[in-house]
Amino acid sequence: MPKLKMPRKSTNVDMTAMCDVAFLLLTFFMLATKFKPDEPVTVVTPNSISDIPLPDNDIMLITVDPKGRIFFSVDNQNVREDIIRDVNEYKGLNLDENQVKSFKYGSSVGVPFNQLKSYLAMPGADQKEIDKTTAGIPVDTVADSELNELGAWIRIARNNNPKIRIAIKADNDATYPQVQKVIKTLEGWKIFKFNLITGLKAIPQGTAAYETSMGRGPKD
Amino acid sequence: MAEMDVSSGGGHKKGPGVKKGKKLSTRVDLTPMVDLGFLLITFFMYTTTMSKPKTMEINMPFKDENIKPEDESKIKASTALTILLSRDHRIYYYEGLGDDANNPPNVQVTYFKPKDGIRDVIINKNKKVNELKQQGALSASDKLTVLIKPDDNSTYNDLVNILDEMSINDVRIYAIVDITPVDKEFIQLTESANAGVQ
Fold first, then answer.
1. Most CB contacts within 10 A, which of A66, B3, B158, B188?
2. How close does chain A come to B19, measured CA to CA in Å?
3. What does the pLDDT look like over A41-88, one tens digit per residue?
4. Rg of chain B over CA atoms, in angstroms?
C-alpha cells in the first residue's frame, strides 16, 4: 500500500507570475502613457456630441481661460524651438540659449512679447505664478495688426509647420467676444477650419443625430 | 509570506563533524517587487491621459475681399432661421433673415433645454422647410439654413451648445455671423417687452 501522507503545503506563494503580470502592465502603461500636458490655467470645456479625437501631433493649442486670457502652445518641441528662434529674430528679444530651452521644454505661454524674455528667464515655479496673473497674449480683431500678438504667433507657427492644426480650448464662461477675437484672427490668416476642444456628451434620444448613430437615419 | 526564504534547501548532513556552508536557497521573495510594480502601475494609470480630448470641427464661412457681393450665395428667407445668443444663456430666434425693415420678424425667446427648447424650434422649422419643398414653393436643393449670431453677452458655452444642436438636428448649413445693430435692437425690444412677464 502506498504511503498516504498528505504533504503539508507551504503557505509561500510563488510571486514570479504575479510579478510578470505587474511588470507587463507597467511596461504597457509606460509606453502608452502620454503625460497630461502642464496647463497654466484650468479650463472647463463645454460638452458636445462630437467624438472626433484630437490628432496626436502637429497641434497648435490656443487656450482661452474664463477671464478671456489667451495662452498659446505647440506640442512638438522641435517646432517650439524653431518658433521661439523666429520670434526672437522677429521681435529682437535677444533671448539666450537658456531662455530658448525654457520655451522649448515649457508649456503654454501667455505673456506679451515684451515680457517674454523676463518670463522665460524665470524658473518654472515663478512662471506658474506669472501665469496666474498675466493678461494673456494680446489679441485684436484685426489679424495683421501690430497689437495682435496672437496673430504673430500663429503666423510664425504656420511658417515653421504648414501642416499644423489649430485647436481652440476655451472655457465655458469665456464670453463670445473673447473667443471671437481668436476666431477673427484665424480668419484674418485665412484659416477657416479649426477644432474646438469639447468634452463628450451622449446624443439625446429621438434626434436626427441619434437616428444616424443608430444606423437608421438618413445618410447622404 | 513576506519574508525571505532562507531555510536550507533540504540538504542533509553528511555526518557529524562535516561542516558545510549553509546552502542558501536561490528563491527570492518577490513580494516587494510586485508591490513596487503595482505602485508604479497605479502611478502611470493616474497620470496617463487615456481618453484623448474630443474636438468639434468647425468651418467658418470663407471670407475674401475679392468676392463680389453679387457672387455671394444668397439665402432664401423662407429657409432661414436666425438664432441670436444673448445673456444668461437666452436664445432669441426668428424665422427669416430679419433684413426687411417693413416687416419686422417675430422674435421669440427660448433656452437650451431638452423639451420645448431651441431643439424643437429647429425641428419645427426643418419640417416647415420640407413642407414648402413638397408644395413646390422651394426647390429640392433648398435646405434649412441657420444663422447663428452670438451677441457680446453670450458665452463660449452657448456657442458650442448651439453648434452642437446643429449636429444633433443634422442641420448641414449654418454659419456663425456677426450680430447686426438691427438684431441687437430686436434683443433689446424683446427684453423690455418680456421684463414684466419674467
1. B158
2. 28
3. 778 888 888 778 777 778 888 888 888 888 888 888 888 888 888 888
4. 35
Sheet holding B80-85, edge to edge: B108-110, B91-95, B80-85, B145-150, B173-176
Other beta carbons within 10 Å of A10:
9
What is the least distance, in Å, from the CA of A189 to any CA of chain B? 10
ipTM score above 0.85:
no
Closest Cα in chain B to A184:
B60
Do B54 and A186 count as a contact with CB atoms less than 8 A apart?
Answer: no
In this structure, are strands A59-64 and B80-85 parallel, antiparallel, or unpaired?
unpaired
Would the CB atoms of A29 and B170 count as touching at under 8 Å?
no
**Pairing state of beta strands B80-85 and A52-53?**
unpaired
Find out whether B168 and B119 touch, Cβ atoms under 8 Å.
yes
pLDDT in tens, A99-153: 888 888 877 888 888 788 888 888 877 777 777 778 788 877 766 666 778 888 8
